[in-house]
From TrEMBL:
Name assigned to this protein: Aspartate aminotransferase family protein
Entry-linked PANTHER family: GROUP II PYRIDOXAL-5-PHOSPHATE DECARBOXYLASE (PTHR11999), MIP05841P (PTHR11999:SF70)
Keywords: Aminotransferase, Decarboxylase, Lyase, Pyridoxal phosphate, Transferase
Membership in a protein family: Belongs to the group II decarboxylase family.
Residues that bear N6-(pyridoxal phosphate)lysine: K292
InterPro entries: Aromatic_deC, PyrdxlP-dep_de-COase, PyrdxlP-dep_Trfase, PyrdxlP-dep_Trfase_major, PyrdxlP-dep_Trfase_small
GO biological process: carboxylic acid metabolic process
Cofactor(s) this protein cannot do without: pyridoxal 5'-phosphate
Domain of life: Bacteria
Length: 463
């Protein structure tokens, strides 16, 4: 059956043309959207018609409406959030995932995608240096991955204290949920959704690393169920908690230890950064996001739990009509979803493309680019780099908060780069998150030049 007789052919052909054109433009176009949400809404026919349109016309209409409102997140000079680009093989695999349209929950009903996801999970564990028998679930993002891990942790600590979590948490003992003072909002949200509430924070140093002594004090004198969340990669400084020290303290108190490593967990994939993740392997669960550092398309969070049986007990579902594996977990036993796309397939494609050495080189390259940005920014009068650049995050500030905010606004409006404005340690900052595999020396040069031009245009430094 050719494209002329296949009903999907014309629509897919239109989509491919627009996808190719978009990808070709990403690194040369202004990163900012050309239209705001009101302009896009004005372009949409808001009245639902009685009669529809044919498929290729719908695709053409969609592209015309949406493309002016797109942010070039795949650009090598996009630093606004911790968002990577997409390797060609990972994108191609993701297109196949949509075409195959498999609800990848069961090894029996979707053996093709389930098998490749199992291989991808094994490669992930090897790359990150985590126990090979851990359970791995492909979730929507870091928040849902954190939630999957915290739900498992919640049930495990309740069982350890004599309460059956199947009966709910209301009648069980109170659970202490602790984290450092720089805990990311995704962990806070995940804790709330898991019924733990927001974590009690125990303090952090000036780079956001957990106060291990504060953790010890918080855990002292109470032998009830406890969960401690640590962090691999602070969203502002890029810093890593003292895993060895914090985990030792938590273990002494019988606490479950979870690591939020949305982008920083990948430091474990390269020997050059081993000092940042010493002791990380000794935790009970870990969360990361492959669309960040690994550069696969949205969406692809990864939940990892050392005790796979505990993960399946908390997240798995059983019903008479659902096929179940014998003696091995199904994909839907590792995430809080019965229906999901085969998110692990693009992960397999990226890891297959890169190999062990390629993954290490990817992470090393991101760190080198961040260091080069910091070096360039330090040479701009009136601009200070205010974090210790240990991984992929660089925060800059001008002489006062108003000037810093103005610089962030100028950069986003000018369009060469996109960096996010934030507040860190009580000070306005412009934050550069290096996550894209394409951020090379030329992208660094253009970024430093844009910041220098912005500082001159705004009259920074001020008297």
């Amino acid at each position: 059956m050719n494209d002329e007789t296949n009903e999907y052919g014309p629509a897919l052909g239109a989509a491919e043309r627009h996808a190719r054109a978009w990808l070709a433009s990403v690194d040369s176009r202004p990163i900012r959207p050309e239209a705001d949400v009101d302009a896009v809404l004005a372009a949409v026919d808001r009245e639902w018609q009685d009669d529809g349109r044919d498929a290729p016309a719908v695709v053409e209409e969609l592209a015309a409406i949406v493309e002016p409102g797109l942010l070039a997140m795949g650009s090598s000079r996009f630093y606004g959030f911790v968002i990577g680009g997409a390797y060609p093989a990972a994108l191609g695999a993701d297109w196949l995932v949509s075409a195959w349209d498999q609800n990848t929950g069961s090894r029996q009903s979707t053996p093709g995608t389930a098998a490749v996801e199992e291989v991808a999970a094994g490669w992930l564990l090897e790359a990150l240096g985590l126990p090979a028998t851990s359970g791995v679930g492909f979730a929507t993002g870091a928040t849902s991955a954190n939630m999957a891990c915290l739900v498992t942790a919640r049930d495990a600590v309740l069982r350890a204290h004599g309460h059956d979590p199947v009966q709910g948490i209301q009648g069980g003992p109170a659970i202490r949920f602790l984290a450092g003072g720089a805990v990311h909002t995704s962990v806070v949200l995940a804790g709330r959704m898991a019924g733990l509430g927001a974590p009690v924070t125990v303090g952090a140093d000036d780079q956001g690393r957990i106060d291990v002594d504060g953790l010890a004090r918080a855990l002292a004198g109470d032998d009830g169920p406890s969960i401690v969340s640590l962090q691999a990669g602070d969203v502002h400084s890029g810093s890593f908690d003292d895993f060895a020290g914090a985990i030792a303290v938590a273990r002494a108190a019988g606490a479950w230890v979870h690591v939020d490593g949305a982008f920083g967990l990948w430091a474990a994939a390269t020997p050059t950064l081993a000092h940042l993740v010493a002791g990380l392997r000794d935790a009970d669960s870990w969360a990361t996001d492959a669309h960040k550092t690994l550069n696969v398309p949205y969406d692809c969070g990864v939940a990892i739990v050392r005790d796979e049986a505990a993960m399946s007990s908390s997240l798995g579902a059983r019903a008479a009509y659902l096929p179940a594996a014998e003696g091995v977990a199904d994909p839907w036993d590792h995430v809080p979803e019965l229906s999901r796309r085969a998110r692990g397939i693009p992960v397999w494609a990226a890891l297959r493309t890169l190999g062990r050495h390629g993954v290490a080189a990817l992470v090393d390259g991101l760190v080198e680019a961040a260091s080069a940005l910091a070096d360039g920014f330090r040479g701009i009068p009136g601009i200070d780099v205010i974090n210790d650049v240990v991984f992929t995050q660089v925060c800059v500030a001008a002489s006062d908060d108003a000037a810093t905010a103005a610089l962030g606004d100028w950069l986003r409006a000018e369009g060469t780069v996109w960096a996010s404005s934030s507040t860190w340690r009580g000070r306005a900052v412009v934050r550069f998150s290096v996550s894209n595999r394409g951020t090379d020396a030329e992208a660094v040069r253009r970024t430093v030049d844009a910041v220098a031009r912005g500082a001159r245009a705004l009259g920074i430094p001020f008297d």
